Amino acid sequence: MTELASLARLDGIAQAELCARGEVSAEELFEACLARIDALNPLLRAAVTVARERPEPASRGLFSGVPFLVKDAMAWPGLRWSMGSRLYAGNVAQRQTPYGRRLEESGLVCVGKSATSEFGLLCGTETLLEGVTHNPWNLSCSAGGSSGGSAAAVAAGLVPLAHANDGGGSIRVPASACGVFGFKPSRGRTVPASFGTSDFGDMTSDHCISRSVRDSALFLSLTEDRSGGTPIGFVREPIARRLRIATWTRTMMGGEPEPAVRRAHEETVTLLRDLGHEVEDVAPPGFDSLALGEAFFLVAGAAVAGIVDTVDRTRDEPVQRDELEPFTWVLVEDFLARGPDALPQARTTFARAVRAYQEATRGYDVVLTPTVASERWSIGHLSPVLGREELVRRTARINGYAPLCNIAGSPAMSVPLHFPDGGVPIGTHFAAAPGSDALLLGLAYQLEQARPWKDRWPPYSVPALF
């Protein structure tokens, strides 16, 4: 058990270095990871599929031998690919994606799939297929979503890093809730991670959730699309220049964060100023927030409607009511009822919001907000069996900052700077202009040095328990 804890404390790069020096074998890393999953996953339900046979690494890459999880939103050959849905409960992926090939070439070893909300639609991870993923800081609280399984697994020390993706905060929200680092790359920064396209897919960025900034930076360098432009490569150092940072706390829907979140935000402002940065309060972008929220869920509904149509055309019977969660069905039906002009109108609404966001942040290097407006939310608060109106209202209240970066194609990150005594962590959100991924990673390194979080372990984690 001591060995379990000692390896769990190491990030991916440190584990790869041990393996390269011959101090531990890839097989030992794999078996130790399985032991950690067996010890804690029955409690947390972070992993939904476990690969018991270790594949041979495709190459001796920079992450060679390091175990990781793949979010069940992405295909991985030979493993079940359910996307959190009963519709795909028996689906097994056959093909590897270009993104997955890059991960194989890096030497990463897939030990299984992590839990997601159905089709990544909700920022909680509790499905009618897989059940509830628990937050290792407080088992009664949500781990966030939709990449809640990846965030919980990394926070608990089951794996040093885990694949995740983000269509409206799905990396950053669970990273905040679980006290780990969550980075969303710029739109188009990485090679494709899916087989199809949709407006919702275009807003989605694949990357990882990690404990260390350097793991995230290396992961990004290995998955970058090098076909056009200049890759940023492996960002290794803290930023060395003074940044001009715009900040506000009002959510997209016009609300304000809870008191604990506001206090955390104010502490971050003080920290940034102490580090020499210029932080200015600015008016948040002005747009029709109700129209933007409707447009976002309409685009999500369009993507799922496409999935339903594909299934209907490829099997004898249409998709049944009990194969999708109630909230998912409502989104599909709402989209279909809107008619052919709805999707173009949603795109117009997005474009207006992006122009307002660009105008509000012009002249600044970075935008600072809270990651989420709520300090915590309990299991069941975002259950997919709740009514659409209530779920949308609760989602907008919690996730009132992150989606705008997906719409704008901006890089963004949640940094774990605040760990209230006896509470759930509170992440801080940073965003920059599209293409400014290296700038954000440099800032993340600086914040990691100023306020280290690597030894912050939740009570239900391998290092805390063993």
Automatic annotation (TrEMBL):
Instruction: Extract the GO molecular function terms from the UniProt entry.
Output: catalytic activity
Domain Amidase intervals: 28-441
Entry-linked SUPFAM superfamilies: Amidase signature (AS) enzymes
Q: Which Gene3D superfamilies match?
A: Amidase signature (AS) domain
Q: Which domain of life is it from?
A: Bacteria
Query: Pfam families from the entry?
Result: Amidase (PF01425)
- Say which family it is in: Belongs to the amidase family.
User: What's the protein here called?
Assistant: Amidase
